[in-house]
Amino acid sequence: MGAYLLRRLALVVPTLLGIILINFAVTQFAPGGPVEQMLAELKGNAGSTLGRISGESQGETRAAQRPETGGSEASKYRGARGLDPTIVAEIEKAFGFDKPWYVRLGDMLWGYARFDLGRSLFRDRPVAGLILEKMPVSISLGLWSTLIIYLVSIPLGIRKAVRDGSRFDLWTSAVVLVGYAIPGFLFAILLVVLFAGGSYLQWFPLRGLLSPGMEGASFLARAVDYAWHMVLPTLALVIGGFAGLTMLTKNSFLEEIHKQYTVTARAKGAGETRVLYGHVFRNAMLLIIAGFPAAFIGILFTGALLVEIIFSLDGLGLLGFEAAMRRDYTLMFGTLYIFTLLGLVMQIVGDFTYTLVDPRIDFEARR
Prior knowledge:
The chain crosses the membrane at residues 9-30, 137-158, 170-196, 226-249, 284-311, 331-357. The protein has 367 residues and is an all-alpha fold.
């Protein structure tokens, strides 16, 4: 297993590099960009914003840009019409777009090799600091929703497999299908309307992870307040996630229950409980348990955007969305780098989990 893990870790670097290169190439041809975004703000707020931008860059920045070259550079931006070419050149220099694309790519890759993600173009803060600041919200949503999904789906799927075709199986299947059909964000809106002061009850808060003034409270009080805030957003993510895992668990157990080794175990006098949990469980749960790291990463980074917006939770999903909308390339590529790296590492963790669940699996023996 050690040699296999080393090979997989060695493949992380070229895979990560390929993903970054493809996305960098796409952004070069996509319309708009951070310079265009700033020019649009300048056109809309010509008085205050123009004075602020022109006052931020003085001295050698202004001396390094000649008016005649500034005019030719500014002509490639639609939003630059009517603006001082020197101001446009200063914006390009501030954002690093005065350099050729290959220089910017090289600087970015060298920074990523040292885990230096740069500074956000519009927030003017380190990207790593922004990600760490938003991480607790997304980890809270991803961790609790994933744990609840597994705790509900696995026993329910086993029960449905044991009682396949019964009334219990039929009505639980109907509930599962309804939950699968309702998008998480739509269920989140319903929860807000019913329980967060929308139109009926106001049992739960609608914003943040802690109530105002709870920072100095005791640990127990903050833990209770935190759990109170997490109820509705976690439910919104769970309702659409448990359906697929429940049916996967049921089908996995049904497939194993009818195999020859279970018939042999029953013929030797083993009871149904021993057959189910002593023989079937390990084989049936292989795919489900090993998929936990990937499921957690999926919910953490992709499933909570609209839920974060609805419940005013400032997490990674909202951060990435704002970066894409504002064309904050430094923040976009920094989050892409971290998300992709974590995803690749979690795939390796998933393979390692396979061997923990079933020691008979040997990845090193594969050809």
